[in-house]
Amino acid sequence: YPHSLQFYLDPPTENISLVEFESFAIDRLKLLKAVENLGVSYVKGNESYKTKLESELRKLKFPYKALAEDDYEARRKDHISHFILRLAYCQSEDLRRWFLQQEMDLLRYRFNELTDSLRQKFLEHINLSFEPVSEDLKNELANELCTSTPGFSMTKVKEQMFYMVGLADAVDLFRARRVFIKGGLAYVPLKDIDAIVLNNYRAKLSKALALTARSLPAVQSDKRLQPLLNHLSHAYVGPDYSLQKSAGKISLDQIDALSVKSFPPCMRQLHRALRDSHHLRHGGRMQYGLFLKGIGLTLEQALEFWKKEFIRGKVDADKFDKGYAYSIRHSYGKEGRRTDYTPYSCMKIIMSNPPSQGDYHGCPFRHCDPELLKQKLQAYKVPPGGIAQILELVKGMHYQLACQKYFEVTHDVEDVGFSLNHPNQYFTESQRLLSGAREVKKEPSNSGNSQPKSISQESKNLSSAPTSSSSTVAAAELEELEAYFTED
Ligand code: SF4
What we know:
single chain, primosome, DNA replication, DNA_primase_C
């Protein structure tokens, strides 16, 4: 790896263990999540943004200092992990878009951190080598550069490096009349070179993602990799909410009040629908049932809760006991393979199984029409300013950040103080706040990785990350459970 920065043109060819495969992928995912969070919380490229991103890179052991020569391991990890996530995130348009955006932001940050000479070396390395304008030539053309480059004073022209770029690479700047042209070359200031590099990177990465998607069937036929890749694309890097630490701490008659105070909108909506129609289709039962289990409903409570509600509708007690009760026991690990099922993470809810007509599962920020979402938020008494901010985040496809904003306005805190990845995390944080157990943070923070956890949600830390076989079994088991729930 000649540079700390890469365009990821050649895939890795070495053999790696499945444990390393998974741990690299999880770390990159954490990094990209941090990039997303920071990009919304701070102005991209300002000092706080840069400091926080550098600290994430250091923490996760990715190359953070362009000058460091002895970071072979970090560069290797950077290279391999990028390609693993490429495999996981090429599978749908939404995933590709998200991955591309975060990788672009990461590259922009890293490129701008390079020293002039390293930048030059990197440009040569990726065949985008542009000749710097010499000091003499710059002085000679200072007037032209100043008048043809918007936002540039004479002093700024003197300070910044300019590069001579072929018109084909600078076509956007040229079209927008933002650049001085002479002798078939555009004189591009350093601040615009990153745009050229990024455009180039975007084109290459989009194409690579499309090509990867085409070869996906071959990769997916590998039984070890397929479940891992699917888990990654629904990636979740927080605590495991299947562990019932709070089992039995909630009584059934608290649920209505809790659904208003402490449920995230996805679960609040499911609860309301269940109360209104005394039924939920299987997608809703899966999503809501496992969430309730995660917040502490015991099996006995769950059976009572669902039965009471369903028999108020069209299902009689006998039908409930014969069909639905089995699937509830199954989700608590008391039937079939006896697996303790894990509540769904936001990514899983957002990225898979979109709701159709008559369904109430999914994430309202992702799956609701904006007008309907607005009405819902009004009904939830979110103030107009908050609604506008939430809708803006939704427009930028930052669904979990929109949910964090919802948390802030409904809990009257300035800063949510955590990075939302899971509906059960939302609930726990809300309860901590409402019970006074959490100190309200005033400083904006990006705590996206404060609770690192394996994707397969079975290990306490990365060193004990599960092997692919556990992921395989988990995936197979989940399918089995979903099959039980298919009865509407
Ligand atoms: Fe639920 Fe997560 Fe969507 Fe919030 S972001 S509504 S917690 S799925």
